[in-house]
């Protein structure tokens, strides 16, 4: 059984995507611990565990820096959507200088726990700030890594939610035993443990950066009323060569704002004309914050399987 440690868990979307993806490639996953510091979000995780949507496991309610790693059971996978504020275009993009920058903490846990695989998620701004360091750090520990930019629309969702996903598989058998000098030497290889892997990852990063910049420059039109099939069609032409969304999954998502609702959907919440309020919606601010940081499970599953096939060539 593949035992998973989930860090910066949020409301569990990435965890659902990873476990479903592992099952699709023939593995038997189980989450053994989650780490989250927001009380409201932990309550959401607890309800998801009670309903069976997530594995029943302890949740460390606190700072990731204080996680007692030496008390954890065996960990085969580490997954998480570490804070995006250091890289997001919506913020100051301070990178390493942002106090919310947690990648160095996660990397130390990776070195200490020596998992067989890692699966991470972040915003598209990570392409131009910080992702190269993540890939170099993983390479320094013997990981083969693959990464890509994926949208929720690829799996039929009525919105884009463009995200970077990184999958790493350890083949070295020496994870966690490297000295600081070995880690720095691994970083100096830039993106991979061999020249071929390094060149491939470097080219991909430059291509994604260029593609992302062009897409952002061309997105001056209003997409608010585009329906599901229009979004999917737009992504098909942009993401040539990638597996296309499965049509039968489109019904799992609500229709976009401005599009007619289906008969099976519950009525939409109508906001007050005064703004900043919605009658009968408790914990509204916490909900919006949790959803804003959330990962679409089907998107994460699609990304994992796609990157797994690339790394394992199957």
| Sheet with the most strands, sense and barrel status | 7 strands, mixed
Total of DSSP H or I helical runs spanning 4+ residues: 9
Taken as a percent bin, the fraction of beta residues is 5-15%
Termini gap: 21 Å
H/E series: EHEHEEHEHEEHHHHH
Physical arrangement of strands within the biggest beta sheet = 3-2-1-4-5-7-6
> Which overall shape is indicated by the principal axes computed on the Cα atoms?
globular
Tally the beta strands: 7
Unreliable stretches: 173-179, 185-190, 217-241, 243-248
Q: Report helical residue fraction.
A: 25-40%
Radius of gyration: 20 Å
- The computed structural class is alpha/beta
What is the average of the pLDDT values?
A: 81
Structure notes:
The model is unreliable at 173-179, 185-190, 217-241 and 243-248 (pLDDT under 50). This protein has helices at residues 13-24, 39-51, 103-113, 131-140, 180-188, 195-218, 228-238, 284-292, 297-312, and strands spanning 2-7, 29-36, 59-61, 77-80, 117-123, 143-150, 163-170. The protein is of the alpha/beta class. The longest helix has 24 residues, at 195-218. The chain is globular. The protein is built from nine helices and seven strands. It has a seven-stranded mixed beta sheet, with helices on both faces. Helix 4 (131-140) crosses helix 5. Helix content is 37%, strand content 14%.
Can you describe this structure in just a few lines?
The chain has helices spanning 13-24, 39-51, 103-113, 131-140, 180-188, 195-218, 228-238, 284-292, 297-312, and strands at 2-7, 29-36, 59-61, 77-80, 117-123, 143-150, 163-170. By secondary structure, the chain is an alpha/beta fold. Mean pLDDT is 81; it is low at 173-179, 185-190, 217-241 and 243-248.
């Amino acid at each position: 059984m593949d035992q998973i440690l989930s860090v910066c868990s949020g409301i569990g979307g990435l965890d659902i995507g990873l476990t479903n993806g592992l099952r699709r490639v023939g593995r038997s996953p189980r989450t053994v611990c989650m780490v989250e510091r927001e009380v409201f979000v932990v309550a959401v995780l607890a309800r998801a565990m009670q309903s069976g949507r997530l594995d029943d496991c302890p949740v460390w309610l606190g700072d990731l820096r204080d996680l007692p790693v030496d008390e954890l059971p065996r960990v085969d996978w580490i997954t998480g959507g570490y804070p995006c504020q250091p890289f997001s275009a919506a913020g100051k993009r301070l990178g390493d200088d942002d106090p919310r920058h947690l990648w160095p903490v996660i990397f130390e846990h990776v070195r200490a726990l020596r998992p067989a695989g890692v699966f991470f998620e972040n915003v598209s701004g990570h392409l131009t700030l910080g992702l190269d360091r993540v890939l170099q750090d993983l390479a320094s520990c013997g990981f083969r890594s693959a990464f890509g930019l994926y949208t929720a629309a690829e799996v039929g969702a009525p919105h884009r939610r463009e995200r970077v996903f990184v999958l790493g598989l350890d083949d070295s058998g020496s994870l966690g035993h490297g000295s600081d000098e070995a880690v720095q030497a691994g970083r100096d290889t830039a993106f991979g443990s061999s020249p071929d892997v390094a060149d491939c990852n470097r080219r991909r990063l430059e291509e994604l950066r260029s593609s992302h910049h062009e897409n952002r420059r061309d997105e001056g039109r209003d997409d608010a009323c585009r329906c599901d099939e229009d979004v999917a069609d737009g992504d098909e032409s942009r993401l040539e060569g990638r597996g296309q969304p499965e049509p039968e999954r489109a019904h799992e998502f609500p229709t976009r704002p401005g599009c007619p609702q289906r008969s099976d959907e519950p009525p939409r919440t109508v906001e007050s004309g005064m703004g900043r309020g919605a009658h009968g919606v408790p914990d509204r601010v916490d909900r919006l914050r949790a959803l804003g940081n959330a990962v679409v499970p089907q998107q994460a599953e699609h990304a994992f399987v796609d990157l797994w096939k690339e790394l394992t060539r199957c």
